[in-house]
Amino acid sequence: MFFEGAGSGDPELFALLSAYPDNEVSFYSNMQKDRKREEMTLKRYNIAIVGATGMVGRKFLQVLQERKLPAENYYLFASARSAGKKCPFMGREFTVEELTETCFDGKDIDIALFSAGAEVSRKFAPIAAEKGIVVIDNSSAWRMDPGVPLVVPEVNPQDILRHHGILANPNCSTIQAVVPLKPLHDRYRIKRIVYSTYQAVSGAGMQGYSDLERGTRGEAPKKFPHPIFGNCLPHIDDFLENGYTKEEMKMVNETRKILGDPSLAITATAVRVPVFYSHSESINVEFERKFELDDLKQALSHAEGIVVVDDPTKCRYPMPINAADRDEVFVGRIRRDESVDSGVNLWVVADNIRKGAATNTVQIAQRLMDYWEKGKLKQENRWQTD
Ligand code: A2P
């Protein structure tokens, strides 16, 4: 899939998207599930994509195409720079429209997937929601708003039921962490979490990606404050007064909100590494209750959305190159933390643009439609400003 017309970087991004390895197994199983869903679904929905020309926006289109949502029509929005661009999608040609205060009028849009940055979301998500559109926002703008559910469908899908027009998609590094933490929290009660992340440059968008490419040619970085090629930067997003970065505090606060436990003790160190796609995380967890390591591994391998890859004798463990373009979260190096009464160490890897962004957002949309279809949620829910 690619965009025609003006705009720098398009062919480059197309090449990047095409470079992902195919995953036929999950593709076909998704197709079967989608077909079943299609057969069962009566209504078809109108879906808008805001930021459709961006890195995550384009991945939205790819994931929507793969998952075949029960959609009647799509509307693609971006800035004035992209207005008029043609985009082949779903076997049709779509024209990108400029995002404006009136652009949603007269279109009968049901759901809008936003990934155009926090500033755009802060302004335009309420405008869309007031028109009865349910916004699923990938930016940080609304994540910690108490009235906005922060959702990972494998973890807290029920939170979707209390939305008032805006739903938030968590930060990429939080999403892949809470997927394995949820089944462990349910069984053993998590007391404390220590996150150490190894995050891909694509998390910093095309500019981050280009800095690593430039570095391989011996050129200076433009996005990062230091070279990323042959280097690690313990610096993701801005530094705060407490000495942590915003990225680290997102992991702390979002984990507490998603697991519904504000008392959880959590600390984090987030590091950018010279990897193009997929974030890796070392997660150290301390529990209230005792556990058997085999039971814990079983719990993880049976949990939705997780693939356990853990056979160190054969050098098998999760790695970014294997997680790229996959929707699952890969967990390995599962071993007891022998320094505490009840603790475990995990190594967790996932594609930051798919499960960490586009796939999770589309999964929220699928759950929402499911709730509407089953009558668990009325579509007339409106944005409330209180
Ligand atoms: P555009 O391509 O027209 O600039 P990324 O995170 O990869 O940079 O993508 C950001 C996305 O958000 C792009 O689709 C970009 O559109 C869109 N965007 C950025 N600023 C605005 C804005 N003020 N209004 C609408 N869309 C915007």
Question: Helical residue percent?
Answer: 25-40%
Question: Beta-sheet strand percentage?
Answer: 15-25%
End-to-end CA span:
41 Å
Largest sheet: 6 strands, parallel
Continuous helix count: 10
Low-pLDDT runs: 1-28
- What is the succession of H and E elements? HHEHEEEEEHEEHEHHEEHEHEEH
From the helix content, strand content and strand pairing, which structural class follows? alpha/beta
The overall average pLDDT, rounded, is: 90
Query: Which shape, going by the Cα principal axes?
Result: globular
If you compute it from the alpha carbons, what radius of gyration comes out, rounded to the nearest whole angstrom?
Answer: 20 Å
Across the major sheet, the strand order is 5-2-1-6-7-8
Bound molecules: adenosine-2'-5'-diphosphate
Q: Strand tally, please?
A: 14
Describe this structure in words.
- This protein is α/β, with parallel strands linked by helices and 386 residues long.
- The protein has 10 helices and 14 strands.
- The strands form 3 sheets. It has a 6-stranded parallel beta sheet, sandwiched between helices. It has a 6-stranded mixed beta sheet with strand order 10-9-11-14-13-12.
- Strand 1 (45-50), helix 3 (55-67) and strand 2 form a beta-alpha-beta unit.
- Residues 1-28 have low confidence and may be disordered.
